[in-house]
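Thread: Modeling a multi-component assembly for a lab meeting

Hi all, long-time lurker, first post. My supervisor asked me to bring a structural picture of a complex we are working on to next week's group meeting, and I have zero experience with this. I have the sequence lines for every component (267 residues in total). Could someone generate the structure of the whole assembly? Inputs are pasted exactly as I received them:
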Amino acid sequence: MRTLIRGMGELTITAGLVFMLFVTYGLWGTGRYTQDQQDRLGDEMLDTWQASKVTTERVKLGKGLAMIRIPRFGEDWKFVVIEGVDRDDLRKGPGHYPGTALPGEIGNFVVSGHRTTYSAPFNRLGELDRGDEILIDTREQQYVYKVTDRKIVTPAATEVTAPVPGHPKRKPTERLITLTTCHPKFSAAKRMIIFGELASAVPRVKRT
Amino acid sequence: MYAWIWRHLPGTWQTKTATALGLAIAVAAILWYLVFPWLEPKVQFDDGVVDTPTPTATP
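Re: Modeling a multi-component assembly
Sure thing. I ran the full set together rather than chain by chain. Output:
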């Protein structure tokens, strides 16, 4: 009997340790994976941007599309936006919904990202206020979007990704951006949505 | 369980300690590099995509 109880105790303690290790992996280990992928895809993207040959080919799924910066989150906050929003894409960084507008285009440029785990690119999205800047760097232009609104919606609220958010049938006339992430933190119950519109476009300084 | 393992490790207490440490590290490595990456998507608690039908296991 004593052996049995001791065995149970040891098992429970072991399970607790394994669980703590798993939480560490989820919060920290996954971020290192994202950082590696970001470094790789960022270098790849800059190489493409610097190449003199401009192709009109679409960016392949899982590759870098643009660079996102949000000054409110600090100078160092920047991520490569990946084309695609599948699980594997979002592990590499924030992902652009294929089929939605490209940066600067008329319509809605929709980007989704992790709020926790995998480097948590969109962790502080809830701190954004109206008028805050979202900068999107592409090969030739830097697009400056300004935040216009924030909403909490259900996970099935696909209308926020429509060219005119909330009105899936309407024809777009404005150049918009929409960021989506999970809400509340560490949950998949709701989605937090940040809306913004294009304020200006600045030609990027050609790197030499 | 641990007492049983300890009794069955060969050598003096020094070698026993070293082997036990090695075993613990090996188990942790297997968990970290093989088990957790496989398990993590299945218990995903962070999902930022809007989609219909409601996404279950996608991030």
